[in-house]
Design brief:
The protein has about 525 residues and is an alpha/beta fold. The chain has 18 helices and 17 strands. The chain binds 5'-O-[(L-methionyl)-sulphamoyl]adenosine.
Length: about 525
């Protein structure tokens, strides 16, 4: 049975509308999913919503709704968002679904029976907004609290704890022995530094119902619900388990084995703020369950706009849907992946977006396709001449370099490489000057060569670009009049266009916006 390449995104809180940060992460994951499929892997791509916990309960209360109907209302909007981003996810999990709750309950029971939990009392400062107890370190020297914590109260509570602290040593060793576990390296070093420099406490995995009712009940103590992060992280295992994953079955989830094999996850794509949950809590939870660990947690940075934090209250936001409505889905997907490498923080500027659109999409790629098809139609009635290999090597290098970057999740570098080929082909037009060759009948054979190389590069570019810009790739393919179908990686081999093939007419891929009257 083939193990699928299993990748996930963080599941978003449903306490508001989706924004640029959410969109970015999902697009990054989608490009990786599509690239892996293109290169012949079976992929399982999961995304979804994190619906329990205090944030959601409070947001529902603020609107005077019960949490479930509040979530149901927003879930429609978020699922429409996933469609709008063109995501190729294979499933969409909502943590309020029975399939999820059943498995979380089973896992809680198992860990409880096997002695991983204990009940204890605790008194401390508690941030209502962030749903977390604070330590002395979080307090300002004058005894006040940073406004980011919101209301801070003194709270005394009995709760259930997960014996997390005892796992610290093996986790450090695991991180040391598996450099690929947290990427990029800077994030791995952060986690290692955190683990080495301080004791790892046990994790409180319950909330008293009296304070928070919106969660999965602890099956062994009805006075409590499960801590939202325990519930949320488990989603990565829930979905393959319920689908009959053989590995997850080995973790005794009681499912029937099918031909579905996804666990362990190959890639969790997450933002920098939630690395600790994914690189510390989650592997320890899995270790306690005896489950194999995910291969890689890929950590991306955060977007700002105009050098400032994204914030609804100050209006410093980028609405991905508005951008997509105005510029098209592919332009949005291109910009976010091209502008920001996976790791550092990024800065959205409308000018930056516009200039990449015009320079790289309209003038770069769009113009190349337009010229190639235009000239072939004009000089050869759209009929592909005999194959020529003048740009074959440039194309082959671009293909293999792009493949290597894609496998290493270096998506920005992959796009830079692809644009190397776009620029090479545009330069080739300048150097060979087919418009001059066309005026000289003795140059007919040379013109054939040039025209072949140009349309063939366009064909290969469609395949390379398909994971990033699926719609533009299909449009290129359609304009080349090639049969619709999956643009898989083997189609990057030089010589796919055959002599005598009739191409279609050029249509602008990315209309130049500065020329379009408002
Ligand atoms: N519900 C948790 C994740 C649970 S995963 C088991 C959560 N949700 S969230 O809605 O707050 O964030 C979802 C993802 O969006 C996180 O990976 C987060 O880092 C990412 N982003 C939120 N704001 C962002 C930016 N401004 N820029 C880039 N990504 C950002 O955390």
């Amino acid at each position: 049975m083939n193990k699928r390449f299993y990748l996930t995104t963080a599941i978003d809180y449903v306490n508001g509308a989706p924004h640029l940060g959410h969109a970015y992460e999902k697009v990054v994951a989608d490009v990786i999913a599509r690239a892996r499929r293109s290169m012949g892997e079976e992929v399982f791509f999961l995304t979804g919503l994190d619906e329990h916990g205090q944030k959601v309960q409070q947001a529902a209360e603020a609107e005077g709704k019960d949490p479930q109907s509040y979530c149901d209302g927003l879930a429609d909007q978020w699922q429409a968002f996933v469609q709008r981003l063109g995501l190729s996810n294979n499933d969409f999990i909502r943590t309020t679904e029975p399939r999820h709750k059943t498995i979380v309950t089973a896992l809680l029971n198992r860990l409880h029976q096997e002695g991983h939990f204990y009940k204890a009392g605790y008194e401390g400062w508690y941030s209502v907004k962030e749903e977390t107890f604070l330590t002395d370190k979080d307090q300002n020297p004058d005894g006040s609290w940073d406004p980011k914590w919101g209301e801070v109260i003194r709270l005394k509570e009995e709760n259930w704890y997960f014996r997390m602290g005892e796992h610290k040593d093996w986790l450090i060793q695991y991180l040391e022995e598996h450099p690929e576990f947290v990427q990029p390296t800077t994030r791995r070093n952060e986690i290692l530094g955190f683990l080495r420099s301080q004791p790892l406490g046990d994790l409180c995995i319950s909330r008293p119902r009296a304070r928070l009712s919106w969660g999965i009940p602890l099956p062994f103590d009805p006075e409590y619900v499960n801590y939202v992060w325990f519930d949320a992280l488990t989603n990565y295992l829930t979905v393959p388990a319920i689908r009959g994953d053989v590995q997850a079955k080995a973790v005794e989830l009681g499912q029937t084995a099918t031909d579905f094999s996804a666990w362990p996850a190959d890639l969790h794509v997450v933002g920098k703020d939630i690395v600790k949950f994914h690189a510390v809590y989650w592997p320890i939870m899995l270790k306690a369950l005896g489950a194999p660990l995910p291969k890689t947690v890929l950590v991306h940075g955060w977007w700002q706009k105009d050098g400032q934090k994204l914030s609804k209250s100050t209006g410093n936001v980028v609405d991905p849907i508005a951008v997509i409505n105005e510029w098209g889905l592919d332009a949005f997907r291109y910009y976010v992946v091209r502008e920001l490498a996976i790791g550092p923080d990024g800065n959205w500027t409308d000018d930056g977006f516009r200039s990449r659109y015009n320079a790289e999409l309209a003038n770069g790629l769009g113009n190349l396709l337009n010229r190639a098809l235009n000239m072939l139609n004009k000089y050869r009635s759209g009929i592909v001449p005999a194959p020529s290999r003048e740009l074959a090597e440039d194309a082959a290098t671009a293909v293999s370099t792009t493949a290597a970057y894609l496998k290493a999740n270096e998506l920005q570098e992959a796009l830079v490489t692809i644009w190397g080929l776009v620029n090479r082909a545009n330069l080739y037009v300048e150097q060979t000057a087919p418009f001059r060759l066309a005026k000289d009948p003795t140059q007919a054979a040379r013109l054939d060569e040039v025209l072949y190389n140009l349309v063939e590069v366009c064909r290969i570019l469609a395949v390379l670009l398909a994971p990033f810009m699926p719609q533009a790739a299909e449009k290129i393919w359609a304009q080349l009049n090639l049969p619709a179908g999956d643009l898989r990686w083997p189609l990057t081999a030089w010589g796919g266009l055959k002599a005598g093939h009739q191409v279609g007419a050029p249509q602008p891929l990315f209309p130049r916006k500065d020329l379009v009257p408002k």
